[in-house]
Amino acid sequence: MYLSDIHTHSIASGHGTSCTISQMAKAASGKGLSFLGITDHGPATLGAGTVSYFRSLPMAPRKRFGIQLLFSAEVNILDDQGQIDLPLDVLSGLDYVIASMHIQNFRPADRQKNTLALLNAMQHPCVKILGHIDNTQYDLDYEAVIQSAAHNQVLIEVNEASLAPYGYRGDTRDNCRQMLKLCQQYQVPVILSSDSHGSAHVGDFTYGDAFIKACSFPQHLILNNQIPRLLAFLMER
To answer: Average pLDDT over the chain, rounded to whole?
Structure first.
């Protein structure tokens, strides 16, 4: 059983769900979680929250249905310079930031450009997690990415929605296996995330948990249940 799920989406992401933050928290409570991260898509995603939405999040209630809420954003990486779609003053008010490449905002390029986009995004002081870098549409130099994650103290995500049969990023298992091997080699912590759009999959790590166990990935590098260490990691700038 895991205590935290810190990559989830509410209605403010603009697609996939009509669930409010309170409905997400209620689902998390039913799953036995202690911490829930709301990480709606940045404004470059069609229909997603505006800058004012993310600016107001820190003033929202922090505890609902016994669940401690963390407020974040899954920002879009826009180019190989690592530009993202929310300004620093807004991101500084959030608890942490996930940076991800989505095909609508960053078309897959060659390995060098794809990798450079992640390396540059990790230079941002608020980016603490790289989202679904297992995506088969993006050819990556995984060793360069994981080495940079170690240097910049950025977590790597094991994304449930990538590994599950309902996923749409292709067969990500080889990429995920390579990613985990390098995380173990360079001692980079990971976080299991549901990437749930709505309440249906909140706290569901069925396939991610099975995968990391099959890879014999060490427990001390999985931060979902190491709450003080996880929070310290996320909040450090």
So the answer is: 97
**Contact indicator for 25, 64 with CB cutoff of 8 Å:** yes
C-beta neighbour count of 60 within 10 angstroms: 12
Tokens of 191: 């976080």
For the entire predicted model, the pTM comes to: 0.97
31: exposed, middle or buried (C-beta count within 10 Å: 0-12, 13-18, 19+)? middle
Cross-strand bridge partners of residue 37: 70
CA-closest candidate to residue 131, choices 84, 198, 93:
84
Residue 237 clears pLDDT 70, i.e. is over it: no
pLDDT of 144 above 80? yes
CB 76 within 8 A of CB 85: yes
The CA distance from 20 to 18, in Å, is 7
Inter-residue contact 135 to 13 (CB < 8 Å): no
Q: Which long-range contacts (CB under 8 A, 24 or more apart) does 165-169 make?
A: 165/207, 169/132, 169/134, 169/135, 169/136, 169/137
